[in-house]
Design a protein that fits this description.
Length: 219
C-alpha cells in the first residue's frame, strides 16, 4: 500500500488517514464548509467527507440508500445508478464510535460525466444533426448521427455514520472510475483504478476516521 498521511478535517476536529497520492482541492477551488474533498489526479479518484443534518425522512436502515440517491441526483445519474450491497459495520469493527451510532457501508455504481460534459456533447451532436439535415439536398435522404456517451462508469464506496444524539449524518464517499469514456476529458490525464486495491485500503481509511472534537457538532 502507498505511503499514508493523516489528514486533519474541519480544523482538526476529525482526522483520517489517506494515501499520499490524495491531495486536498481546497487551494484550487472553493469547497463548501460542510465538505472536505481530496483527489488522486492520476487515477481520477476522489474522497469526499460531508457533515449533514440527519435525514429524518430516511430510516436508519435506508439512510445509506437515501444519500446514494441524493448523490445520483447531484451527478445527473438517476437513470444510471445501481446499489450493489448495503451492510452494517458494527462497534467491534469501529470501537471508537458511540454505541448509539449506526454505521452503514454501501457499494454501488453510477455513470457520471465530469463538468457537464455529457450535456455539452449532446448539444454538439444535436447541432451537428440539424446542420447535416439542413444541408441534405433531398428530403428522402437520412442524416446519420453517432451517439457518444461522455459518462464514466464509477464504483462508489460510501459509509454513512448516523449519529442520532448529534442529529447528524456523516457521509464518507470514495469514487473510483472503472471505465473512462473516450469522450471524457479524464481519458487524457487519468487511468482506471484497481478496484481490489481500492476496496482494501478504503476499509483501512474508514477504520482511521476519528472524531477528535465532538464539539464540532454543537452539542
Amino acid at each position: 500500500m502507498a505511503t499514508v498521511n493523516q489528514q486533519e478535517l474541519y480544523g482538526g476536529a476529525i482526522t483520517i488517514n489517506l494515501p499520499s497520492k490524495f491531495g486536498t482541492i481546497s487551494h484550487v477551488r472553493a469547497v463548501p464548509d460542510h465538505q472536505e474533498v481530496f483527489v488522486n489526479v492520476d487515477e481520477d479518484q476522489s474522497v469526499i467527507v460531508e457533515i449533514l443534518e440527519l435525514a429524518a425522512e430516511a430510516s436508519d436502515d435506508n439512510c445509506a440508500a437515501f444519500h446514494f440517491q441524493q448523490l445520483a441526483e447531484d451527478n445527473d445519474a438517476e437513470d444510471a445508478s445501481t446499489i450493489q450491497s448495503v451492510s452494517v459495520l458494527n462497534n467491534a469493527e469501529l470501537p471508537t464510535w458511540p454505541a448509539d451510532a449506526k454505521i452503514y457501508l454501501l457499494l454501488g455504481q453510477q455513470r457520471v460525466a465530469k463538468f457537464n460534459e455529457q450535456q455539452r456533447l449532446q448539444q454538439q451532436q444535436q447541432h451537428h444533426h440539424l446542420a447535416t439535415a439542413a444541408s441534405t439536398p433531398s428530403s428522402s435522404s437520412t442524416a446519420t448521427t453517432t451517439t457518444t456517451d461522455a459518462r464514466n462508469l464509477i464504483q462508489i464506496m460510501m459509509v454513512v455514520f448516523r449519529l442520532p444524539r448529534q442529529q447528524t449524518d456523516i457521509v464518507l464517499t470514495y469514487n473510483v472510475p472503472l471505465k473512462i469514456s473516450d469522450s471524457s476529458s479524464s481519458k487524457q490525464v487519468a487511468h482506471e483504478g484497481d478496484i481490489s486495491e481500492a476496496e482494501g485500503w478504503f476499509r483501512e481509511v474508514v477504520g482511521s476516521f476519528t472524531v477528535r472534537d465532538w464539539g464540532l457538532f454543537g452539542n
